[in-house]
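tool=predict chain=A
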Amino acid sequence: QVQLVESGGGLVQTGGSLRLSCAASGNIFTINSMGWYRQAPGKQREMVAVITSGGLTNYGDSVKGRFTASRENGKNTMYLQMNGLKPEDTAVYYCNAFVASGRLIWGQGTQVTVSS
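tool=predict ok
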């Protein structure tokens, strides 16, 4: 099994930056892709960024040009650098992994709050 733990969330003012981390453990060799998702109150969970095993990264339209997702080579860690934060970025951010067995694995989430 794969376990994911997010960290780095917090409170920031409009225009500020945060860096989220996701530490993966367990059978990490089974991971096909990893990504960041977020869910704001009253809204559906949406994709923020997905990194495939081939290194391709897809971003949600609302974060393009502001957020950067990355994975450490040989390290079981994924990051989300968030710049130019806006109040609409306020959400719980979740780390996700799609594993070879066909299962989706989720972290516990970390709260990001952007004040106006």
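The chain has no helices and eleven strands. The chain has a mean pLDDT of 94.
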